Amino acid sequence: MKHITWMTLNLVIIVMFLFQAVVTCNARAMGSTQKLRVLAAKYNVTSILVFGDSSVDPGNNNNLPNTWHKGNFLPYGKDFSHSLPTGRFTNGRLCTDFIAEALGYRNIIKAYLDRNLMEVDLLHGVSFASGGSGYDDFTAKVTNVISLRKQLEYFKEYKIRLGKLVGEETCHKIVENAVFILSTGTNDFLQNYYIDPTRSHRFTIAQYQRFLINCMETSIKEMHLLGVRRLAVVGMEPFGCMPMIKTLKNSVKCDENMNQVALSFNFLLKAKLSSLEATLRMRSVFVDIYGVIQNTLQNPLKYGFTEAEKGCCGDGLTEFGTSLKGLSTCANHSKYIYWDAVHFTENMYYIIADEAVKSIITSL
Fold it and tell me: What InterPro entries does its record include (predicted)?
C-alpha cells in the first residue's frame, strides 16, 4: 500500500472545493490547485467527508432494497471508466472523485455503503450522501432513501471504524481537521413540498423554508458535537430551470417563482450559517452555485455548451432515475448542461467547480 503521510492527507479537502477545475481548464486549474494545496497545508486539512443528496451520492443508494431512486444502470455512468454505472446520477464522475485524482490517490471517492470499500478508503474520505435525501427527514421517506439523520449515524459508525484503524487520538485529529461538505435541499421542495401534501398542508412556502433552516441547524449542531469544525454548505440551484420543471409547467422559460424560492432560501441559509459559525466557533463556507448555473443557462455558448433546454438522455424533458433505463443519449455529451431532466452533466460540474474555487480561496 502506498505510504500515506500527513502532508498528503492535508491536501485532500480544500482541493475538494475546487471540485475539478483541473479538468475544466488545465492551465488555470493547475494554478488553483497549487493555491489550494498551500492553503490545505497551512490549515492542516486532513480529509473530506460528504453528506447530502444525488449531487454528491457516488452510489450509496445501490444498496437500498426499497427505493427506485438509483443510478446504477446505463445511461448513467456512460462516460465513467469502462462505461460502468456506479450509482452516480450523471454521465461520469462527481466532484469528490476529481479531488481524489488531483491528489494522486485514485480517481474516485467511494460511497460509504460501497461493498468494495476498504479500510484505507476511510482515510481519504467517503460520502454518506443519498440521492433523494434532504434537510427534512420526511423527504427521504418519500423515496425510501437515507435521511440526513441516518447519514450522521453512519458518520458515527465511520468514526468507530477509523478509530480502530488509526487509534483514537489520530482519529480525533483527522475528524477535527477534515472539511465536511453538505449539499442538499432541492428534493425538499421538488419531491416533497410541491408533490406530497404532508408539508404543504402544514406550512406556507415561507414557513417551510424556515422549517428547513431549523432542520439544517439541528444537523449542523449534531455535526459539531461529533467533532466537525470545518463545514462547507452548498446553496440551492435555480431548480425552476430544470428541463423537467419547464416541461411540467409547459413553458420554455424557467419558473421564476421556484427560482425565487431557491434565492430566498439561500439568503436564509447563508445568514444561519454565519450565525452558527459565530456561536459554535466552526469555520464555514457557503458555496453559492445559483449565479454560475444561471449564467451558464443564459449564455451556454460562452461556456462551451450548445444545449441548455433539455437533457442528453431520452427526450431530455422528463426522464430521470429508473425511467432512463435503456434510453439513448445525445451524440456529444460535452455540449449538454443537463444529463437527464434533473441532473447536470460532468462538464457542467466543471464549470460550477471552477467558479466555486474562487470564493473558497477567498473565504479561507
Answer: GDSL, GDSL_lipolytic_enzyme, SGNH_hydro_sf, SGNH_plant_lipase-like
pLDDT tens per residue across span 265-307: 999 999 999 999 999 988 888 989 999 999 999 999 999 999 9
% helix, strand, coil for the chain, step of 5: 55, 10, 40
In the residue annotation, 333 being an active-site residue is answered as no
Q: Are 127 and 110 in contact (CB under 8 A)?
A: yes
From 54, 127, 147, 284, active-site residue: 54
Q: Find the length of the chain.
A: 364
Q: What's the CA gap between 212 and 265, in Å, rounded?
A: 9
Residue 208, C-alpha cell as written in the block: 417551510
Tell me how far apart the alpha carbons of residues 95 and 266 are, in angstroms, rounded to a whole number.
21
Q: Is 343 a catalytic residue?
A: yes
pTM beyond 0.85: yes
Strand partners, 52: 183
Instruction: Identify whether 340 is a catalytic site residue.
Output: yes
